[in-house]
Backbone:
């Protein structure tokens, strides 16, 4: 049988030394209590929900990374799957993935963490299926059951899943306490803090949504990360990136983590009181089209409008003028640097605006010009430069004479609710990858019941299994690297042909800290998890 048995086997004893070496810390250091000074981290990212069932965003993930355990995880500085709450995970059969839970684990409230909690955690994400939640990541999970206190079995729809182990590390992976989290609804943040159903390296003390979260080292944590190096870390949320910049510059906070403006980053790089840290890229900025509500009298006209927009943008100008080179042009759903990445949007639509080509797309489909585009963006989640970015997008589109852009903005908490209710015909999103694999840029976007909620890739009587669904299933279950890369190219070509999204830019991870802060660069790795356990001063 051709299934990936063995590639996901993870044993604690075999990998403990690797994880510690990657983190640059000895075993003796790892066993020490968290000590030293308190730290303050500042961010402009908003938390949608502490409950994993109700969120799939960077702000929420930052909190969840600190307080929840996962079956598997990526230690700082590593992209090797490592035991967290599980002692091992492996394929028992092509469609059967089995994890063994470590003995003696418990939540901060004293409740035991068992396989039953694990199964409950995954089931409720699928059952609740919150529009802002990560249920789309579990599309290949047919069922999950606890066979006993230490054994959880995932039954998969498709065999030989090349990504399922990594899915367990994503926003869909946090383990919650079944005694305190409801099975059929999202737990609000205050109730989650009160319940203390956390078994990660930190628990949450004081908490005011949208303002402050106080993280306390969990002495009972037993997982993939090192023990916290700092006992208390406070996360402060800023409404204005300018204040974030001033406070890190003046030493009022220790670390600024998302999102400073490119101009501020450039300025801070010349300040000898702070240090700018840059890590592996992978963030994608793009426009999403709602296939139901976007302009166009029929599917052909809507596609023509999307193609005409793709032929009208100058990504180089966005990169250099707005982002000072901290973001670079993106010509695919999969950013450069990922295995299998291509640039089909450049091949099909060029790297500079082409008014004649854009007009031809519209004329051939009978679209009257100028086309009114209602384009929505938000001001507080993807950095304050979003306003400058989208005003430039508006100007570039209108410079062709083919479009009239009605540009509107909304704060993210409202934005995240309204975009999934068909309120926006086309809208801004950014993507912070769940794990370092090209699949994570395509399956969450384009599979049925996908995160975008844009009415793309639906099934009907004439199209029961769309071509994209077939391609996604093929790449996710293909153990042959060469043929898998070929399928990923087909997927990217199809995205460029259909234009369900319009990729704009890709960027690096950037954090700024005081000179006395250690461990920042250690956590800016391709796993895209900002781990407070690494930080100290």
Residues:
């Amino acid at each position: 049988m051709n299934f990936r048995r063995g590639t996901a086997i993870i044993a604690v004893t075999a990998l403990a030394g690797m994880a510690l070496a990657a983190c640059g810390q000895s075993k003796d250091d790892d066993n020490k209590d968290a000590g030293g000074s308190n730290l303050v981290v500042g961010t402009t990212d908003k938390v949608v929900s502490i409950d994993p069932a109700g969120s799939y965003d960077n702000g929420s993930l930052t909190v969840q990374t600190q307080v929840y355990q996962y079956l598997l995880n990526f230690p700082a500085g590593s992209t090797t799957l490592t035991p967290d709450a599980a002692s091992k995970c492996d394929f028992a059969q092509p469609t059967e993935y089995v994890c063994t839970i470590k003995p003696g684990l418990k939540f901060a409230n004293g409740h035991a963490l068992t396989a039953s909690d694990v199964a409950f955690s995954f089931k409720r994400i699928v059952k609740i299926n919150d529009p802002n939640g990560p249920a789309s990541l579990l599309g290949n999970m047919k069922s999950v059951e606890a066979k006993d206190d230490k054994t959880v079995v995932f039954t998969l729809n498709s065999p030989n899943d090349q990504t399922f182990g990594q899915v367990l590390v994503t926003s869909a992976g946090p383990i919650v306490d079944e005694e305190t989290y409801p099975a059929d609804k999202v737990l609000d943040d205050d109730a989650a803090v009160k319940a203390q159903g956390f078994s990660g390296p930190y628990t949450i003390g004081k908490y005011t949504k949208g303002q402050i979260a106080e993280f306390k080292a969990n002495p009972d944590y037993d997982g993939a990360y090192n023990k916290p190096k700092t006992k208390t870390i406070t996360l402060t949320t800023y409404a204005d990136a300018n204040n974030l910049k001033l406070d890190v510059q003046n030493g009022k906070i220790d670390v600024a983590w998302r999102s400073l403006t490119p101009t501020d980053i450039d300025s801070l790089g010349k300040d000898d009181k702070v240090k700018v840290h840059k890590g592996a890229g992978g963030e994608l900025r793009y426009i999403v089209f709602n296939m139901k509500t976007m302009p166009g009298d029929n599917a052909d006209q809507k596609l023509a409008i999307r193609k005409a927009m793709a032929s009208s943008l100058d990504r180089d100008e966005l990169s250099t003028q707005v982002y000072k080179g901290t973001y670079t042009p993106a010509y695919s759903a999969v950013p450069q640097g990922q295995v299998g990445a291509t640039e089909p949007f450049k091949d099909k639509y060029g790297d500079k605006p082409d008014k004649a080509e854009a007009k031809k797309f519209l004329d051939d489909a009978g679209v009257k010009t100028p086309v009114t585009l209602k384009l929505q963006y938000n001001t507080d989640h993807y950095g304050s430069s979003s306003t400058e970015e989208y005003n430039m997008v508006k100007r570039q589109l209108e410079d062709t004479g083919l479009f009239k852009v009605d540009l509107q903005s909304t704060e993210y908490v409202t934005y995240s609710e309204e975009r999934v209710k068909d309120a926006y015909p086309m809208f801004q999103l950014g993507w912070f990858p769940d794990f370092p694999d090209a699949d994570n840029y395509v399956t969450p976007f384009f599979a049925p019941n996908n995160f975008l909620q844009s009415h793309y890739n639906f099934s009907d009587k004439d199209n029961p299994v769309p071509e994209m669904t077939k391609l996604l299933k093929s790449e996710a279950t293909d153990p042959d690297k060469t043929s898998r890369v070929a399928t990923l190219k087909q997927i990217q070509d199809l995205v460029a042909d259909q234009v369900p999204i319009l990729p704009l830019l890709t960027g690096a991870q950037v954090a700024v800290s005081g000179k006395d802060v250690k461990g920042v660069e250690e956590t800016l790795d391709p796993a895209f998890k900002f781990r407070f356990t690494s930080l100290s001063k």
The longest helix spans residues 481-498. The chain has two domains: 12-251+515-534, 281-508. The radius of gyration is 23 Å.
